[in-house]
Amino acid sequence: MSRVVLTGIGMVTPLGNSAAEVLEGIKNSRCGIGEITRYDASDRAVKLAAEVKDYNPDDYFDKREQRRLDRVTQFGIIAGRRALENANLTREYLSNERAGVFVSSGIGGISTIESEHAKGMSRGFDKVSPYYIPMAIINLTAGNIAIDLNAHGSCQAMVTACSSATNAIGEAYRHIKHGYADIMFAGGSEAPITELSVGGFTSMKALSLSQNPNRASIPFDKKRDGFVMGEGATVLVLEEYEHAVNRGANILAEIVGYSDTCDANHITAPCEDGKFAAQAMVQAIADAGIKTCDIDYINAHGTSTPLNDKYETAAIKRAFGEDYRDVLVSSSKSQIGHLLGASGSTELAMTIISMQAGIVPPTINYEYPDDACDLNLVVNRYKEAEINYALKNSLGFGGHNASIVVKRWTE
Protein backbone atom coordinates (compact mmCIF):
# COMPACT_ATOMS: atom_id res chain seq x y z
CA MET A 1 0.00 0.00 0.00
CA SER A 2 1.10 3.55 -0.74
CA ARG A 3 2.18 6.26 1.65
CA VAL A 4 0.08 9.44 1.58
CA VAL A 5 1.55 12.89 2.05
CA LEU A 6 0.12 16.39 2.19
CA THR A 7 1.48 18.78 -0.43
CA GLY A 8 -0.89 21.75 -0.45
CA ILE A 9 -3.27 23.78 1.72
CA GLY A 10 -5.95 26.22 0.53
CA MET A 11 -7.92 28.21 3.12
CA VAL A 12 -10.80 30.68 3.43
CA THR A 13 -11.36 31.16 7.17
CA PRO A 14 -12.44 33.65 9.83
CA LEU A 15 -8.79 33.79 10.92
CA GLY A 16 -7.20 34.36 7.51
CA ASN A 17 -6.97 33.18 3.93
CA SER A 18 -3.53 31.56 3.85
CA ALA A 19 -1.38 29.34 6.03
CA ALA A 20 0.78 32.36 6.91
CA GLU A 21 -2.21 34.47 8.00
CA VAL A 22 -3.72 31.65 10.02
CA LEU A 23 -0.39 30.88 11.73
CA GLU A 24 -0.07 34.56 12.64
CA GLY A 25 -3.56 34.38 14.15
CA ILE A 26 -2.64 31.26 16.12
CA LYS A 27 0.54 32.83 17.48
CA ASN A 28 -1.31 35.98 18.51
CA SER A 29 -4.29 34.14 20.02
CA ARG A 30 -6.56 36.12 17.72
CA CYS A 31 -10.30 35.50 17.84
CA GLY A 32 -12.20 35.41 14.54
CA ILE A 33 -15.60 35.86 16.20
CA GLY A 34 -17.63 39.08 15.98
CA GLU A 35 -21.10 40.50 15.51
CA ILE A 36 -23.15 38.99 12.69
CA THR A 37 -23.13 41.15 9.56
CA ARG A 38 -24.72 38.70 7.11
CA TYR A 39 -28.19 39.76 8.28
CA ASP A 40 -29.77 41.96 10.95
CA ALA A 41 -29.44 40.01 14.19
CA SER A 42 -30.33 42.89 16.52
CA ASP A 43 -33.56 41.23 17.64
CA ARG A 44 -32.20 37.66 17.69
CA ALA A 45 -30.98 35.67 20.66
CA VAL A 46 -27.69 34.82 18.90
CA LYS A 47 -25.75 37.87 17.77
CA LEU A 48 -22.24 36.49 17.19
CA ALA A 49 -20.64 34.37 14.48
CA ALA A 50 -17.21 33.73 12.98
CA GLU A 51 -17.51 35.24 9.51
CA VAL A 52 -14.93 35.30 6.71
CA LYS A 53 -13.59 38.85 6.79
CA ASP A 54 -13.65 41.33 3.88
CA TYR A 55 -14.92 38.79 1.37
CA ASN A 56 -15.88 40.29 -1.99
CA PRO A 57 -17.02 37.74 -4.60
CA ASP A 58 -16.18 40.25 -7.35
CA ASP A 59 -12.52 39.52 -6.65
CA TYR A 60 -12.97 35.91 -7.76
CA PHE A 61 -16.08 35.53 -9.91
CA ASP A 62 -17.84 37.54 -12.59
CA LYS A 63 -21.51 38.44 -12.15
CA ARG A 64 -22.71 35.50 -14.23
CA GLU A 65 -20.71 33.06 -12.12
CA GLN A 66 -21.99 34.64 -8.91
CA ARG A 67 -25.58 34.06 -10.01
CA ARG A 68 -24.80 30.36 -10.42
CA LEU A 69 -22.68 29.69 -7.33
CA ASP A 70 -23.88 29.70 -3.73
CA ARG A 71 -21.52 31.21 -1.15
CA VAL A 72 -20.58 27.71 0.05
CA THR A 73 -19.40 26.75 -3.43
CA GLN A 74 -17.58 30.05 -3.92
CA PHE A 75 -15.58 29.38 -0.75
CA GLY A 76 -14.85 25.82 -1.88
CA ILE A 77 -13.64 26.86 -5.34
CA ILE A 78 -11.37 29.55 -3.89
CA ALA A 79 -9.90 27.10 -1.36
CA GLY A 80 -9.36 24.58 -4.17
CA ARG A 81 -7.55 27.15 -6.30
CA ARG A 82 -5.34 28.14 -3.40
CA ALA A 83 -4.55 24.50 -2.66
CA LEU A 84 -3.64 23.96 -6.32
CA GLU A 85 -1.27 26.94 -6.24
CA ASN A 86 0.19 26.02 -2.87
CA ALA A 87 0.95 22.50 -4.14
CA ASN A 88 2.61 23.95 -7.25
CA LEU A 89 0.17 22.13 -9.51
CA THR A 90 -1.68 23.25 -12.65
CA ARG A 91 -5.03 22.44 -14.25
CA GLU A 92 -3.17 20.95 -17.20
CA TYR A 93 -1.25 18.59 -14.91
CA LEU A 94 -4.52 17.35 -13.38
CA SER A 95 -6.18 16.46 -16.66
CA ASN A 96 -6.21 12.73 -16.08
CA GLU A 97 -8.22 10.17 -14.16
CA ARG A 98 -5.69 9.93 -11.31
CA ALA A 99 -6.70 13.22 -9.65
CA GLY A 100 -9.97 13.54 -7.74
CA VAL A 101 -12.01 15.73 -5.41
CA PHE A 102 -13.57 14.72 -2.09
CA VAL A 103 -15.00 17.95 -0.66
CA SER A 104 -17.89 17.91 1.79
CA SER A 105 -20.40 20.20 3.43
CA GLY A 106 -22.79 19.70 6.30
CA ILE A 107 -25.56 21.98 5.05
CA GLY A 108 -24.68 23.01 1.50
CA GLY A 109 -26.34 25.96 -0.24
CA ILE A 110 -28.60 27.02 2.60
CA SER A 111 -28.58 30.72 1.64
CA THR A 112 -29.86 29.82 -1.83
CA ILE A 113 -32.56 27.59 -0.33
CA GLU A 114 -33.74 30.47 1.86
CA SER A 115 -33.69 33.14 -0.86
CA GLU A 116 -35.35 30.98 -3.50
CA HIS A 117 -38.05 29.88 -1.09
CA ALA A 118 -38.78 33.52 -0.31
CA LYS A 119 -38.94 34.24 -4.06
CA GLY A 120 -41.30 31.32 -4.59
CA MET A 121 -43.60 32.49 -1.83
CA SER A 122 -43.84 35.98 -3.31
CA ARG A 123 -43.75 35.30 -7.08
CA GLY A 124 -44.76 31.66 -7.43
CA PHE A 125 -42.55 28.59 -7.29
CA ASP A 126 -42.36 28.26 -11.07
CA LYS A 127 -40.36 31.49 -10.97
CA VAL A 128 -37.46 30.28 -8.85
CA SER A 129 -33.99 30.34 -10.40
CA PRO A 130 -33.16 27.53 -12.83
CA TYR A 131 -29.86 27.36 -10.93
CA TYR A 132 -31.61 26.80 -7.59
CA ILE A 133 -31.06 23.02 -7.47
CA PRO A 134 -27.39 22.96 -8.58
CA MET A 135 -26.67 25.86 -6.21
CA ALA A 136 -28.30 24.12 -3.26
CA ILE A 137 -27.28 20.47 -3.45
CA ILE A 138 -24.21 19.54 -1.45
CA ASN A 139 -22.35 17.49 -4.05
CA LEU A 140 -22.02 20.38 -6.46
CA THR A 141 -19.47 22.17 -4.32
CA ALA A 142 -17.20 19.19 -5.03
CA GLY A 143 -18.46 19.04 -8.61
CA ASN A 144 -17.72 22.70 -9.27
CA ILE A 145 -14.25 22.37 -7.73
CA ALA A 146 -13.55 19.42 -10.04
CA ILE A 147 -14.71 21.46 -13.04
CA ASP A 148 -12.61 24.42 -11.96
CA LEU A 149 -9.50 22.29 -11.39
CA ASN A 150 -9.99 19.98 -14.39
CA ALA A 151 -9.86 16.91 -12.12
CA HIS A 152 -11.43 13.83 -13.71
CA GLY A 153 -10.93 11.22 -10.99
CA SER A 154 -13.44 10.25 -8.32
CA CYS A 155 -15.53 13.20 -7.13
CA GLN A 156 -17.58 12.73 -3.98
CA ALA A 157 -19.18 14.62 -1.10
CA MET A 158 -19.42 12.71 2.19
CA VAL A 159 -22.15 14.22 4.35
CA THR A 160 -21.65 13.32 8.01
CA ALA A 161 -22.54 16.64 9.66
CA CYS A 162 -19.58 18.03 11.60
CA SER A 163 -17.40 15.04 10.67
CA SER A 164 -17.84 15.64 6.93
CA ALA A 165 -14.45 17.16 6.08
CA THR A 166 -12.55 14.72 8.27
CA ASN A 167 -14.32 11.82 6.59
CA ALA A 168 -13.56 13.36 3.19
CA ILE A 169 -9.85 13.57 4.01
CA GLY A 170 -9.84 10.10 5.52
CA GLU A 171 -11.52 8.53 2.52
CA ALA A 172 -9.17 10.43 0.18
CA TYR A 173 -6.28 9.01 2.20
CA ARG A 174 -7.65 5.50 1.72
CA HIS A 175 -8.28 6.19 -1.97
CA ILE A 176 -4.60 6.96 -2.54
CA LYS A 177 -3.32 4.38 -0.07
CA HIS A 178 -5.07 1.58 -1.96
CA GLY A 179 -3.94 2.78 -5.37
CA TYR A 180 -7.03 4.42 -6.85
CA ALA A 181 -5.51 7.89 -7.29
CA ASP A 182 -2.27 9.84 -7.20
CA ILE A 183 -3.68 13.21 -6.09
CA MET A 184 -6.84 14.07 -4.15
CA PHE A 185 -8.22 17.47 -3.23
CA ALA A 186 -10.03 16.89 0.05
CA GLY A 187 -11.75 18.96 2.70
CA GLY A 188 -14.94 20.87 3.36
CA SER A 189 -16.80 24.11 2.75
CA GLU A 190 -19.59 25.72 4.72
CA ALA A 191 -21.58 28.98 4.60
CA PRO A 192 -24.25 28.53 7.28
CA ILE A 193 -24.47 32.05 8.73
CA THR A 194 -28.04 32.60 7.59
CA GLU A 195 -31.25 33.40 9.42
CA LEU A 196 -32.74 29.92 9.05
CA SER A 197 -29.56 28.02 9.84
CA VAL A 198 -28.64 30.07 12.90
CA GLY A 199 -32.29 30.06 13.97
CA GLY A 200 -32.45 26.27 13.76
CA PHE A 201 -29.36 25.76 15.87
CA THR A 202 -30.60 28.42 18.30
CA SER A 203 -33.94 26.67 18.81
CA MET A 204 -32.19 23.39 19.63
CA LYS A 205 -30.09 25.18 22.28
CA ALA A 206 -26.80 24.40 20.53
CA LEU A 207 -25.44 27.95 20.15
CA SER A 208 -23.82 30.26 22.69
CA LEU A 209 -25.96 33.22 23.74
CA SER A 210 -22.95 35.22 24.88
CA GLN A 211 -22.60 38.71 23.42
CA ASN A 212 -18.90 38.86 24.28
CA PRO A 213 -16.81 37.58 21.34
CA ASN A 214 -14.05 36.60 23.78
CA ARG A 215 -16.33 34.48 25.96
CA ALA A 216 -18.62 32.85 23.41
CA SER A 217 -16.62 29.93 22.00
CA ILE A 218 -14.83 28.61 25.09
CA PRO A 219 -14.24 24.84 24.71
CA PHE A 220 -13.64 22.88 27.93
CA ASP A 221 -14.32 25.99 30.04
CA LYS A 222 -16.76 25.36 32.89
CA LYS A 223 -18.98 28.28 31.76
CA ARG A 224 -19.35 27.15 28.15
CA ASP A 225 -22.92 27.38 26.88
CA GLY A 226 -22.80 26.42 23.21
CA PHE A 227 -20.86 26.79 19.99
CA VAL A 228 -20.45 29.79 17.70
CA MET A 229 -21.38 29.39 14.04
CA GLY A 230 -18.48 29.77 11.62
CA GLU A 231 -18.04 29.77 7.86
CA GLY A 232 -15.28 29.12 5.34
CA ALA A 233 -13.49 26.34 3.51
CA THR A 234 -10.23 24.43 3.61
CA VAL A 235 -9.04 22.08 0.88
CA LEU A 236 -5.93 19.94 1.31
CA VAL A 237 -3.89 18.27 -1.43
CA LEU A 238 -3.18 14.63 -0.61
CA GLU A 239 -0.66 12.87 -2.79
CA GLU A 240 0.93 9.48 -3.21
CA TYR A 241 4.44 9.73 -1.77
CA GLU A 242 6.44 8.54 -4.80
CA HIS A 243 4.36 10.72 -7.09
CA ALA A 244 5.06 13.74 -4.89
CA VAL A 245 8.79 13.03 -4.78
CA ASN A 246 9.02 12.49 -8.53
CA ARG A 247 7.49 15.88 -9.30
CA GLY A 248 9.57 17.66 -6.64
CA ALA A 249 6.63 18.60 -4.44
CA ASN A 250 7.06 20.39 -1.12
CA ILE A 251 5.82 17.82 1.42
CA LEU A 252 4.11 19.40 4.45
CA ALA A 253 3.14 16.33 6.50
CA GLU A 254 2.23 12.66 6.17
CA ILE A 255 -1.21 11.22 6.86
CA VAL A 256 -0.63 7.87 8.52
CA GLY A 257 -3.89 6.79 10.15
CA TYR A 258 -7.67 7.13 9.89
CA SER A 259 -10.80 5.53 11.27
CA ASP A 260 -14.47 6.32 11.73
CA THR A 261 -17.25 4.83 13.83
CA CYS A 262 -20.86 5.58 14.76
CA ASP A 263 -22.35 5.89 18.22
CA ALA A 264 -25.72 4.65 16.87
CA ASN A 265 -27.15 6.15 20.01
CA HIS A 266 -28.91 9.52 19.51
CA ILE A 267 -29.54 11.99 16.70
CA THR A 268 -27.58 14.78 18.39
CA ALA A 269 -26.15 13.74 21.78
CA PRO A 270 -22.86 11.80 21.90
CA CYS A 271 -22.51 8.62 23.96
CA GLU A 272 -21.88 9.47 27.60
CA ASP A 273 -19.03 6.99 27.99
CA GLY A 274 -17.36 8.02 24.71
CA LYS A 275 -16.95 4.36 23.76
CA PHE A 276 -17.22 4.67 19.99
CA ALA A 277 -15.41 8.01 19.68
CA ALA A 278 -12.63 6.32 21.64
CA GLN A 279 -12.77 3.37 19.26
CA ALA A 280 -12.25 5.71 16.27
CA MET A 281 -9.15 7.15 17.96
CA VAL A 282 -7.74 3.75 18.88
CA GLN A 283 -8.30 2.38 15.38
CA ALA A 284 -6.74 5.45 13.71
CA ILE A 285 -3.68 5.11 15.94
CA ALA A 286 -3.47 1.40 15.14
CA ASP A 287 -3.77 2.19 11.43
CA ALA A 288 -0.75 4.48 11.87
CA GLY A 289 1.20 1.60 13.39
CA ILE A 290 1.94 3.50 16.60
CA LYS A 291 0.76 3.56 20.23
CA THR A 292 -1.23 6.12 22.20
CA CYS A 293 1.95 7.20 23.98
CA ASP A 294 3.33 8.30 20.59
CA ILE A 295 0.60 10.91 20.10
CA ASP A 296 1.94 14.29 21.23
CA TYR A 297 -1.13 16.42 20.54
CA ILE A 298 -4.88 16.09 20.01
CA ASN A 299 -6.78 18.78 18.12
CA ALA A 300 -10.12 18.05 19.73
CA HIS A 301 -13.57 18.47 18.25
CA GLY A 302 -14.13 20.72 21.28
CA THR A 303 -17.34 22.50 20.34
CA SER A 304 -17.86 24.47 23.57
CA THR A 305 -21.17 22.72 24.21
CA PRO A 306 -21.69 21.26 27.69
CA LEU A 307 -22.17 17.67 26.51
CA ASN A 308 -19.63 17.43 23.68
CA ASP A 309 -16.64 18.61 25.69
CA LYS A 310 -17.52 16.45 28.68
CA TYR A 311 -18.06 13.30 26.64
CA GLU A 312 -15.09 13.91 24.34
CA THR A 313 -12.97 14.14 27.47
CA ALA A 314 -14.37 10.75 28.53
CA ALA A 315 -13.58 9.35 25.07
CA ILE A 316 -9.98 10.60 25.15
CA LYS A 317 -9.47 9.08 28.61
CA ARG A 318 -10.98 5.79 27.45
CA ALA A 319 -8.78 5.68 24.34
CA PHE A 320 -5.53 6.80 25.94
CA GLY A 321 -5.72 5.34 29.43
CA GLU A 322 -3.10 6.89 31.69
CA ASP A 323 -1.41 8.40 28.62
CA TYR A 324 -4.18 11.03 28.53
CA ARG A 325 -2.31 12.95 31.23
CA ASP A 326 0.65 13.55 28.91
CA VAL A 327 -0.93 14.28 25.54
CA LEU A 328 -1.49 17.99 24.83
CA VAL A 329 -5.05 18.98 23.87
CA SER A 330 -6.69 22.12 22.47
CA SER A 331 -9.66 23.18 20.37
CA SER A 332 -9.26 25.53 17.41
CA LYS A 333 -12.97 26.37 17.55
CA SER A 334 -12.08 28.88 20.25
CA GLN A 335 -10.50 30.96 17.46
CA ILE A 336 -12.62 30.20 14.37
CA GLY A 337 -15.96 29.08 15.75
CA HIS A 338 -17.57 25.92 14.39
CA LEU A 339 -17.35 25.57 10.61
CA LEU A 340 -19.59 22.49 10.73
CA GLY A 341 -18.79 20.40 7.64
CA ALA A 342 -15.59 22.38 7.03
CA SER A 343 -14.35 22.26 10.61
CA GLY A 344 -12.31 19.06 10.28
CA SER A 345 -10.20 20.17 7.32
CA THR A 346 -9.69 23.67 8.68
CA GLU A 347 -8.64 22.43 12.10
CA LEU A 348 -6.40 19.74 10.60
CA ALA A 349 -4.72 22.43 8.51
CA MET A 350 -4.24 24.54 11.64
CA THR A 351 -2.69 21.51 13.32
CA ILE A 352 -0.25 20.90 10.46
CA ILE A 353 0.69 24.58 10.20
CA SER A 354 1.41 24.58 13.93
CA MET A 355 3.42 21.34 13.76
CA GLN A 356 5.63 22.88 11.10
CA ALA A 357 6.19 25.95 13.27
CA GLY A 358 7.07 23.89 16.35
CA ILE A 359 4.07 25.02 18.37
CA VAL A 360 0.76 23.73 19.72
CA PRO A 361 -2.27 25.92 18.95
CA PRO A 362 -4.15 27.14 22.03
CA THR A 363 -7.70 27.09 23.30
CA ILE A 364 -8.06 30.85 23.70
CA ASN A 365 -10.30 32.82 26.10
CA TYR A 366 -10.20 29.98 28.66
CA GLU A 367 -10.84 31.08 32.25
CA TYR A 368 -12.67 28.50 34.38
CA PRO A 369 -11.40 24.89 34.63
CA ASP A 370 -14.00 22.15 34.59
CA ASP A 371 -13.32 18.96 36.55
CA ALA A 372 -15.28 17.06 33.89
CA CYS A 373 -12.78 18.25 31.26
CA ASP A 374 -9.53 17.66 33.12
CA LEU A 375 -7.31 17.15 30.07
CA ASN A 376 -3.76 18.42 29.53
CA LEU A 377 -5.07 21.59 27.90
CA VAL A 378 -3.00 24.23 26.12
CA VAL A 379 -4.84 27.43 26.98
CA ASN A 380 -4.79 31.10 25.98
CA ARG A 381 -1.35 31.08 24.34
CA TYR A 382 0.43 28.64 22.05
CA LYS A 383 2.98 26.27 23.53
CA GLU A 384 6.36 25.63 21.97
CA ALA A 385 6.74 21.90 21.44
CA GLU A 386 7.95 19.41 18.85
CA ILE A 387 4.89 17.51 17.70
CA ASN A 388 5.80 14.31 15.85
CA TYR A 389 2.32 12.78 15.78
CA ALA A 390 -0.99 14.60 16.09
CA LEU A 391 -4.55 13.29 16.23
CA LYS A 392 -7.54 15.20 14.85
CA ASN A 393 -11.02 14.36 16.12
CA SER A 394 -14.36 15.25 14.57
CA LEU A 395 -17.73 14.27 16.05
CA GLY A 396 -20.98 14.89 14.20
CA PHE A 397 -24.72 14.84 14.81
CA GLY A 398 -25.98 11.34 14.10
CA GLY A 399 -23.16 9.84 16.15
CA HIS A 400 -20.49 10.17 13.47
CA ASN A 401 -16.94 9.91 14.84
CA ALA A 402 -13.79 10.36 12.75
CA SER A 403 -10.13 10.52 13.70
CA ILE A 404 -7.03 11.18 11.60
CA VAL A 405 -3.37 10.81 12.59
CA VAL A 406 -0.76 13.03 10.93
CA LYS A 407 3.00 12.78 11.22
CA ARG A 408 5.42 15.70 11.12
CA TRP A 409 7.36 15.56 7.88
CA THR A 410 11.09 14.84 8.06
CA GLU A 411 13.28 13.89 5.11
Automatic annotation (TrEMBL):
Catalytic residues of the enzyme: 162 (for beta-ketoacyl synthase activity)
Pathway: Lipid metabolism; fatty acid biosynthesis
GO molecular function: 3-oxoacyl-[acyl-carrier-protein] synthase activity
EC number(s) from the headed UniProt entry: 2.3.1.179
Keyword Lipid metabolism: yes
GO biological process terms held by the UniProt record: fatty acid biosynthetic process
Short name of any one Pfam family annotated for the protein: Ketoacyl-synt_C
Residues annotated as domain Ketosynthase family 3 (KS3): 1-408
CDD domains to which the protein is assigned, alphabetical: KAS_I_II
Catalysed reactions listed for this entry: (9Z)-hexadecenoyl-[ACP] + malonyl-[ACP] + H(+) = 3-oxo-(11Z)-octadecenoyl-[ACP] + holo-[ACP] + CO2; a fatty acyl-[ACP] + malonyl-[ACP] + H(+) = a 3-oxoacyl-[ACP] + holo-[ACP] + CO2
GO annotations of cellular component type: cytosol
Keyword field: Acyltransferase, Fatty acid biosynthesis, Fatty acid metabolism, Lipid biosynthesis, Lipid metabolism, Transferase
Keyword Transferase carried by entry: yes
Similarity comment: Belongs to the thiolase-like superfamily. Beta-ketoacyl-ACP synthases family.
Function: Involved in the type II fatty acid elongation cycle. Catalyzes the elongation of a wide range of acyl-ACP by the addition of two carbons from malonyl-ACP to an acyl acceptor. Can efficiently catalyze the conversion of palmitoleoyl-ACP (cis-hexadec-9-enoyl-ACP) to cis-vaccenoyl-ACP (cis-octadec-11-enoyl-ACP), an essential step in the thermal regulation of fatty acid composition.
Protein name: 3-oxoacyl-[acyl-carrier-protein] synthase 2
Source species of the chain: Mogibacterium diversum
Phylogenetic lineage: Bacteria, Bacillati, Bacillota, Clostridia, Peptostreptococcales
Encoding gene, per UniProt annotation: fabF
